[in-house]
Write a structure and sequence with these properties.
The complex is a heterodimer of chains A (about 150) and B (about 80). Chain A has one domain: BH3618-like (Roll). Chain A has 1 helix and 10 strands; from the N terminus they run ββββββαββββ. In chain A, strands 3, 4, 5, 6, 7, 8, 9 and 10 form an 8-stranded antiparallel β-sheet that branches. A two-stranded antiparallel sheet of chain A has the order 1-2. By secondary structure, chain B is an alpha+beta fold. Chain B has a 3-stranded antiparallel β-sheet with strand order 1-2-3, with no helix packed on it. In chain B, a hairpin with a 3-residue loop joins strand 1 and strand 2. Chain B starts with 10 loop residues before the first strand and ends with a helix. The chains are: A mainly beta (about 150), B alpha+beta (about 80). The interface between A and B is large, with 43 and 33 residues.
């Protein structure tokens, strides 16, 4: 299928690349289909582009690059999705991303929202933004520091 | 807005399947228990708002910001490998 985006123009993608988000991203309930776009090689930052709103795209990244021991309690959030929980290793099969905020002209001040991780089940291509139940992790973790 | 007064140990029912229990009232704090179906999300309002506001700002990132962030990231991490 062909999709129009404001940042990347028209893009062509396969149905199996689409990630369905029945609850949307928080604050954007009307966008329920997304695709991950790797815009730059060798960059840990990816685009999470809405297919329902050409203007809507988030910068996301792998939180474990910045916080190797990140261990959010995903179970409650994941329960909403009725994904098949088969065995203890289930949560390990999920892909976890965090949304990144980069202040204009000041990349050293960029932060990741570790309080509201984006969780994707690659098996059924569905995703949900989980809000962690307690104040486990900040919504503004600095990312402009060296990898540990 | 509907305003109700409840004592500790009393409840409020919302619809058929949501019950709010007022477990304990101590000074300015109230301990509340919420029974709701699994598909209903329950969050502290301020946590919900923080995540929503982060999404709102994040939604306006441009390709320039991502490029700068990528360069900055590879810069600080290459420097580390050299040392």
């Amino acid at each position: 299928m062909k999709i129009k985006t404001t940042r990347f123009g028209e893009i062509t993608l396969n149905n199996d690349q689409v990630i369905h988000m029945p609850h949307g991203m928080l604050g954007f309930p009307d966008s329920q289909r997304f695709v991950i776009i790797q815009n730059r090689e060798n960059s840990p930052f990816l685009w999470y582009q809405s297919l329902d709103d050409p203007e809507l795209a988030f910068v996301i990244t792998n939180p474990y690059l910045f916080m190797p021991d990140y261990n959010p309690q995903l179970k409650d959030g994941v329960t909403l999705m009725s994904w098949q929980m088969d065995g203890k290793g289930f949560l390990k099969t999920l892909d976890v991303y965090v949304v990144v905020n980069i202040p204009r002209g000041a990349p050293e001040k960029m932060t990741g929202n570790f309080m509201g991780p984006l969780v994707i089940n690659p098996l059924c291509r569905q995703g949900i933004q989980v809000i962690l139940s307690d104040d486990e992790y900040s919504h503004k973790i600095p990312l402009g520091q060296q990898r540990k | 807005m509907l305003i109700l007064t409840r004592k500790s140990g009393e409840q409020i029912a919302i619809g058929d399947d949501i019950v709010i229990n007022f477990l304990e009232i101590k000074g300015t704090q109230v301990k509340v228990g919420i029974e709701a179906p699994r598909h209903i999300t329950v969050h502290r309002q301020e946590v919900y708002e923080r995540v929503r506001e982060e999404n709102m700002t994040a939604a306006s990132m441009t390709a320039t910001e991502l490029s700068l962030a990528s360069e900055f990231y590879s810069h600080i991490n290459t420097k580390k490998e050299e040392t």
